[in-house]
Write a structure and sequence with these properties.
about 270 residues, alpha/beta, 2-enoyl-CoA Hydratase, Chain A, domain 1, 8 strands, globular, disordered N terminus
Length: about 270
């Protein structure tokens, strides 16, 4: 009996850690790959009108079939030089402020917002802290909870910490099958709890960061299976995002905001 429990624990640990490795795979499709498969006529907008233009976040206007939308995505990059320029998907405060500027613009013109999330977390540098990293993330959380247009967020690969949550206060949160979403990285969790980042696989098990676990806890709303080609996955995402937005647009702005707030307030409730 004891051996069975040990094997079961190891299987769970290995399963969650495999998801982490799959989500971080350098050859895995990136947010811009999906953007090009899901939307058309994309027009990028730049800058936060305060400091600069964060290359880790790409945002602008596009069409989802016949619906005009605002798209905001976190991009890690593919080649080494692009990854350096995009800070490996780790956003500065100006990236979150650019995102919020585009969301408020979307609200003004009654456009739904679609966020594609792929980041290990917000950028941890001194400059980012000096320019108000925590405040920028907190402002996004607050403003997204009050936004009067539909918001759909997709966890593409890695949804890490507040850096991901700053774009995930949505009416509908979708995760790809092999994506992860967590309050802290497994390495960070292991370093805090056991002073050893080498215990990251064990931390991943306890964090329950895979899509199936998060769906069971009511933290996400939909899992998109990753069977088939990148184009096929894009088509499935398109179908789900489109039908979700059509349904959300039937709600009044006040009902939309109320439902979104209740959705997040109910997470973690025990029956």
């Amino acid at each position: 009996m004891l051996n069975n429990k040990i094997h079961q624990s190891n299987d769970e640990e290995n399963s969650e850690w495999r998801k982490v490795l799959l989500a971080r795979d350098r050859n895995r499709f990136k947010s811009l790959d999906l953007l090009n498969n899901i939307f058309h006529s994309f027009f990028e907008l730049h800058g936060d009108r305060l400091y600069g233009d964060d290359k880790a976040i790409v945002g602008g206007l596009a069409f989802l079939r016949d619906i005009p939308v605002t798209v905001i995505c976190q991009q890690k990059g593919k080649e080494q030089e692009e990854m350096r320029v995009r800070q490996y998907g780790m956003s500065m405060p100006e990236g979150y402020r650019k995102s919020l500027r585009l969301m408020k613009q979307a609200e003004k013109f009654r456009r739904p917002v679609v966020c594609l999330i792929d980041t290990p977390g917000a950028f941890p540098g001194i400059g980012a802290e000096e320019r108000g990293q925590a405040e920028a993330i907190a402002k996004n959380l607050y403003e997204m909870s009050c936004l009067t247009v539909p918001i759909v967020s997709v966890i593409v690969s890695e949804g890490g910490s507040g850096g991901a949550l700053a774009l995930a206060v949505a009416d509908n949160v979708i995760m790809l099958e092999n994506a992860i979403f967590s309050v802290v990285s497994p390495e960070g969790c292991a370093s805090i709890l056991w002073k050893a980042s080498s215990l990251a696989p064990k931390a991943a098990q306890y964090l329950k960061l895979s899509a199936n676990n998060l769906k069971a806890y009511g933290i996400i709303d939909k899992i998109i299976e990753e069977d088939g080609s990148e184009e096929h996955i894009g088509t499935k995402l398109t179908n789900h995002i489109y039908s979700t937005i059509v349904d959300l647009q039937k709600l009044s702005p006040s009902q939309l905001v109320y439902n979104r707030r209740m959705k997040f307030r109910s997470i973690g409730e025990c029956n």
